[in-house]
Automatic annotation (TrEMBL):
Designated name of the protein: MBL fold metallo-hydrolase
Source domain of life: Bacteria
Family the UniProt entry places it in: Belongs to the metallo-beta-lactamase superfamily.
Pfam families: Lactamase_B
Keywords, in A-Z order: Hydrolase, Metal-binding, Zinc
Species name: Corallococcus macrosporus
Domain Metallo-beta-lactamase: 1-194
Length: 224
């Protein structure tokens, strides 16, 4: 399973596009991916699904929340949103095309069990159908937060601060406070797309808000 598919070449030839090399470094080929779980349909999270019209993950089913897919895959919505969001519509159409043609897109509604031990958590705000994914095994949980947070040094301290890429700012701020409160209380691991490497860690209460405790890592990598 892969959570989000990266930007591919959506931001130009020199920005992003490193996901496949990172996957290979972790010991996986694109063909090994059975499921891509998309948190939401902003180009930096899905455009890497497809390259030159072909599915990058030929054996994968793409999971996406229904409200999210119905919004960004509907070209008539493009003119209803501010300028910054408009490129995502043609990007989504292109990225989804080979998967839709192969009947490999699975839309789900809200919070639901998708695969054994894997469930979505509805967190609309940043986008209409933004979803977290929670993975549970042997009493442990990890949550993948997508774009719940963009600026670590600001938004753990002040969860009410929003960015212009939040389609519904007030809802996005509410989701952030709720998620951080839950993670700090329960202590599970969190992965967040826009927190720099390792991007995985714990949320810890600090004063009236929170702080981020990154997971330990070694630049030497894992021993085989
Ligand atoms: Zn986003």
């Amino acid at each position: 399973m892969l959570v989000d598919a990266g930007a591919g070449k959506a931001f130009g030839p020199d920005a992003g596009g490193r996901l496949l090399n990172s996957l290979r470094a972790a010991g996986y080929r694109p063909e090994d991916i059975d499921a891509v779980l998309l948190t939401h349909l902003h180009g930096d999270h899905f455009a890497g699904l497809t390259a030159e019209g072909k599915a990058v993950f030929p054996n994968a089913t793409v999971y996406v929340e229904k409200n999210e897919a119905d919004f960004w895959l509907d070209a008539s919505k493009e003119k209803t949103v501010p300028e910054v969001f408009r490129p995502f519509f043609p990007q989504a159409a292109a990225a989804f095309a080979p998967y839709l043609a192969a009947n490999k897109v699975k839309k789900f509604s809200g919070s639901t069990e998708l695969l054994p031990g894997v469930r979505s958590i509805a967190t609309p705000g940043h986008t209409p159908g933004h979803a977290f994914y929670a993975v549970e095994s042997k009493g442990q949980q990890m949550q993948f937060w997508g774009d719940l947070i963009h600026a670590k040094d600001v938004q753990f301290r002040s969860p009410g601060v929003t960015i212009k890429f939040d389609l519904d700012s007030a809802a996005a701020a509410r989701q952030r406070l709720k998620a951080m409160t839950d993670a700090a209380a329960k202590g599970y691991y969190v992965g967040a797309s826009h927190i720099s490497f390792p991007g995985i860690g714990h949320v810890v209460p600090e004063g009236k808000a929170f702080t981020w405790l990154p997971a330990n890592y070694s630049v030497a990598g894992l021993k085989p």
